[in-house]
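Aim 2, interim progress: modelling of the 4'-deoxy-4'-aminopyridoxal-5'-phosphate-bound target.
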Amino acid sequence: TPAVDWAAVRRDFPVLEREVHGKPLVYFDSANTGQKPSAVIEATDDFYRRHNANVSRAVHALGTEATEAYEGARGKLAKFLNVRADELVLCSGTTFAINLVAYSWALPRLKPGDVIVLTRMEHHANIVPWQLVAGRTGATIRVAELDARGDLDLDGLYRLLTPEVKLLALTHVSNVLGTVNPVREICREARRRGIATLVDGSQAAPHRPLDIAAIGCDFYAITGHKMSGPTGTGALWARREHLEAMPPFLGGGEMIKEVRFEGTVFNDAPHKFEAGTPNIAGFVGLGAAIDYLSALGMANIEAREQALLAHATEALSGVEGLRIFGAPAEKAAVISFLVEGAHAHDLATLLDLEGMAIRSGHHCAHPLMQHFGVAATCRASLAFYNTHDEVDAFVAAIEKVRKLLA
Ligand code: PMP
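Predicted structure of the complex, ligand included:
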């Protein structure tokens, strides 16, 4: 692969040219949502200007174009993830995707005595739906814990996988620690025991080459807005046999073959799970995002982000009183930290005045915060469009505000 011109790539992202409080924007909050390249903004704009119509309902030219664009995005995403297009349910994001599995797969299946296994590092989106299922079925939840470095304790996890366990739901990459879980090995162990697996790929799909078929899970959830795509886009991949067995979650138009008051014949999967008018323009944008990421190459993106992470980790380790949470064996470009004597929110607020966007808080991961015994951390999350100069400016800004807060 030819070397990527990262300075040119950065110029593809209009928002990064902005100033904030009179300072150049340093956007280190990509784990929260990613910025969008012009190609994505223009594809969405072009859809509304030239093609806008609803999908699957009209025979007219615009209707056909809209349907082709929407289904085209499904095809691009399927290829990107290495799965079959007819196993990909398009939806609003990971939260919807996990809830779809909770309501359509787990709720009709689980009984009192059944167990769902989660991990300590899950996002609330991969905890709360299971609590709702547990509350309604009488199933219970078990939690796999972390070791001191912020890696999953795999032996401990496997010990939890007893015959009562029906589902293991875990994140591929932690949105707080950056921990990359060995999901292939874990799913293999679960499968050997007859346990279904759901992988939350929110923080993996934007940052590394992905091959869902090779992971060997039953369900994989992604969210488009972290992958350079528009908000309100995402997908659930599930094995065809699951999709066929699962009843629909929402009823309405688009998801039926025939409706009579005596009863309705549902459409085939994945359309059975896509009731109502979808986010057509959003998926057109996501299709453009997939083209964009594919052209850059996910291996290049991963290498770039690893270089930025190494630089940031090294530079931050020189800041007095700064503690980085977690040092997992394999780590994505997410750095959670605290500075002695400074509240996370105060630090983030002062950094904002320097033009720097980081997140402070619990990162939708209360149980992980409880594990570390803190209420909040600061989190800097990097993406390929960030620069080494930004990392240096960030560390200098932390040094500056640390003195203000001390
Ligand atoms: N899981 C993880 C690991 C996440 O980081 C996020 C987003 N912060 C979600 C789930 C939820 O994604 P969304 O809000 O796009 O549905």
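The pocket of 4'-deoxy-4'-aminopyridoxal-5'-phosphate is lined by residues 93-95, 123, 125-126, 171, 175, 200, 202-203, 223, 225, 364 (CB under 6 Å). The domain at 41-294 is CATH 3.40.640.10 (Aspartate Aminotransferase; domain 2).
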